[in-house]
Design goal:
3 helices, alpha/beta
Length: about 100
Amino acid sequence: MAESKSHKQGKGSAARTEFPISRGRRLDAVRGKHAIEVERGGTPQKIDQALSRLRTQTNKNKILRVPQTDMGLAVQRAQQKNMNVTVTNLAKTKRKKA
């Protein structure tokens, strides 16, 4: 399925998009020292999958971009997994550290 316009905008103009990681998975974008994952599905399972993709990047700042209505859920899930992640909305105007 093709990416939506908002998904592409969330990745930004990163140098490497669709970055391959282990087990045939792909991280949305890697920009310098930042690993970016955009997750538009607001279910806990989808957010957990996105966090597991970010967990593979050990020496990068991890950014999870979700719709603003799902930011609280994403922060809660990241705290349960003891992950240092910055959760932002898709427009990049609000952020929360988890």
